[in-house]
Amino acid sequence: MQFGLSEEQVLLQDNVNRFLDDHASLNAVRDYAAGGEDAALWQGLTELGVSGLLISEDAGGVAMNALDAAIVAEALGYHAAPGPFLGSAVMAPTALQLADPTNTLLAELASGTTRIGIAFNEAIGRRAGAAVEVSGGNINGKSLFAFDSEADAYLVADAHQHLYLISANAPGLSRTHLTTIDKTRRTVELTYTNAQATLVSNNPSVFFQTLDIGRIMLAADTLGAAQNMLDQAVAYAKQREQFNRPIGSFQAVKHMCAEMAAQLEPCRAMVWFAAHATNELPDEARLTACHTKAHLSEVGKFVAKTATEVHGGMGFTDLLGLHYWFKRCGSNRQWLGSPELTREEAAAIQGLI
């Protein structure tokens, strides 16, 4: 069986990469990490149709599928690009369309005029003192590590996998910016005190389908970040000389680069298949998403560590900026479920526990 990208998908990949080459350079990433904004970058991606990728044409989107979104996610990871893609272009549209395809927010997401963040942690792995309780339309509690500090609203999940939408300006909601290792994306802690929330869905299936596609996007993002680190390591090994010869000629360095490539290359097919299963093989989608997220987390960690070692002491400096991709792989590993948690879920799906 031959499984590859179509001509349209290759064109999408090329267009997004070209745009990011021009507008998400390492200096641009540094500026954002130092406190800059991502609005201009997101507006440019919106003009390419990225914000409406998964939204129906009736709502102003381009009606593409999860594989197309995974292609974009990989490009964003490769460039360590900031932006609300995961929440506003993937998870929020997925949940809103599954719950109500006529929701007026879909048009606003497609046009890029509204950003919706994601607060799913308390439905995945609840932390002490961070429970979310909803009663009579009012929400109380706390959500840790919610995506997108600049969101206009948040899609919040409770312990019952019910989804609620709450405005970022709602009375009773406070946002606290969190300091995390990943400076290319910003997270917040949401605290609710009788804040008014709107029920989006009380069907756990909607939650899980939204979670699954989010995990696949994080896996694709890790794939792109790891590929960039591998490319940088190979380029460095070719030009860095020791004992009057490139270090890439040394067998030990060759083995390090070869092992990174050997572990990473099969991951691309894994991500593509997981995204394909989301739309075409619903019976396999959850299990595949769990396995893909877990495996890419482990491979991303290995590639990030090994690529840094190939660079030697230079790998730890801000001059190269390798740490942006290193930390991106690390944060992707934990968001929406660690490898241990997703493997446990996969085992439960298969009836092994």
Please tell me about this protein's structure:
By secondary structure, the protein is of the alpha+beta class. The protein folds into three domains: 108 residues, Butyryl-Coa Dehydrogenase, subunit A, domain 1, CATH 1.10.540.10; 86 residues, Butyryl-CoA Dehydrogenase, subunit A, domain 2, CATH 2.40.110; 145 residues, Up-down Bundle (Butyryl-CoA Dehydrogenase, subunit A, domain 3). Helices cover 54% and strands 14% of the residues. It is globular and about 75 Å long. The two termini are 33 Å apart. The model has no long low-confidence stretch (mean pLDDT 93).
Outline of the structure:
With about 350 residues, this protein is an alpha+beta fold. It has helices at about 5-25, 25-35, 40-45, 65-80, 85-100, 105-110, 120-125, 205-240, 250-280, 280-310, 320-335, 340-350; strands at about 115-120, 130-135, 140-145, 155, 165, 175, 185-195, 200, 240, 245. The chain contains twelve helices and ten strands.
Distance between the termini: 33 Å
Q: Quick one: overall form?
A: globular
Oligomer: single chain
Mean pLDDT: 93
Please name the fourth-level CATH homologous superfamily of the largest domain: Butyryl-CoA Dehydrogenase, subunit A, domain 3
Q: How many domains make up the coordinates?
A: 3
Low-confidence stretches: none
CATH topology of the largest domain: Butyryl-CoA Dehydrogenase, subunit A, domain 3
Report the portion of residues in β strands.
Answer: 5-15%
Proportion of helical residues:
40-55%
Number of helices: 12
Characteristic key phrases:
353 residues; alpha+beta; Butyryl-Coa Dehydrogenase, subunit A, domain 1; Butyryl-CoA Dehydrogenase, subunit A, domain 2; Butyryl-CoA Dehydrogenase, subunit A, domain 3; 3 domains; four-stranded mixed β-sheet; four-stranded antiparallel β-sheet; 12 helices; 10 strands
